[in-house]
Amino acid sequence: MLSTCATATESAKALEYNASATRCTEQGYVAGLIVQVCARAGQVGRSLGVEPRDSAQTRTVTPAEEYAGVLRARDRRKLTGVGNAYRIFNFVAALTAPLDHLNEVLMDSRVAHVQADCYAVLTPVELAATSASTSSAAVPWGLDRIDSRTGLDGRFDAGEQRGWNSTIYIADTGVRISHRDFGGRAVRGWSAYCNDEDDTCGAVGVDGGVITAGHSGCNSHGTHVASTAAGTQFGVAKAATIVAVQALNCYGGGTTSGIIGAIRWSMEDAITMGRERTSVISLSLTSNLGSIDKAAVVEAHNAGLVVVAAAGNAAYDQCASLPTCPQPCARCDGPKTD
Q: In the chain, how many domains are there?
């Protein structure tokens, strides 16, 4: 049982919403549900007489896949309209459901948390950062600030900490990996939103997250973040490998399940490549995380990755608001000290 999985009960749970998001319900349907399942594989469907199996019979079905299968099977009997259901994490499933079906999910003893899979977009403050120019300064004050706990000296000295043999997963709007500032260190990753016909990203789940040169319609926030983290000219870890992971679509919008999916893919890729102890997931997205988002962050942390989330760049008192990321599993950072 996962340490992040709280004790589930048959009492009603509150449906969590992202306060900064939009489009959580549409025409009597929850636009999407993200369900954290607390049960071992094989236990979810037995009491209902439903035991969904993997079609290929080559691996163990995860609790999330099993729960999604149970809902689909029950829906066929009740004709209540459960839509697409799929695994995000082994313990998290995403699905669409009518509002009159929601209470059944909230009361389910196998479910610890339920979030609305809302749609959100980058804020004007976040977008403004991508248009700011630092070309007039030899060393931007941000780099000068982080290499010393004392005063500014107009220099950036990273010493031996240049990001050698490190990997940064940029979970954002996509990255223009061909940009000269990356010096060939940026590679294709994964996309939650692009389809095969979208030439700004790759095929879904294969080589997505890449923005092609000259595509002016695409948001450059992800490329900006990647350059800040590991660009040759103004980056911090100038020798690190950058992996483009598209959590938000090309135009700066996306869903909660897309963000969770980006965390999952980054974690699984790092483990597959044997680099989970030298990998970082960048979540430069100002948003209060829900219980399941936090569980995903904890899962990545427990696997050995460092998760860095934006502390909030809107010039408000972060201490007076809900934290963007759970401590100590995620490290919060931002360009302001106000």
A: 2
Asked which of 117, 132, 160 is the last residue of a domain, the reply is 117
Same domain assignment for residues 97 and 131: no
Pairing of strands 92-98, 29-37: antiparallel
Q: How far apart are CA 75 and CA 291, in angstroms?
A: 26
Beta strands 167-172 and 279-283 are parallel
Q: Which helix (H) or strand (E) is 244 found in, with range?
A: strand 241-246
Q: Smallest Cα–Cα separation from 271: which of 299, 293, 294, 292?
A: 299
Find the helix packing angle between 291-302 and 256-272, rounded to 10°: 10
> Which residues 6+ apart lie within 8 Å of 320 measured at CB?
none
Question: What residues contact 55, with CB distance under 8 A and at least 6 apart?
Answer: none
Distance CA 72, CA 185 (A): 43
Q: Could you read off the pLDDT of 125-149 as tens digits, one per residue?
A: 555 555 544 444 577 777 888 877 7
As a whole-number percent, the residues of the chain with pLDDT over 70 amount to 50
**Predicted confidence (pLDDT) at residue 89 exceeds the cutoff of 50:** yes
**CA-to-CA distance for 133 and 245, rounded, in angstroms?**
24
Tell me, yes or no, whether 129 lies in a domain.
yes
Q: Is residue 61 domain-resident?
A: yes
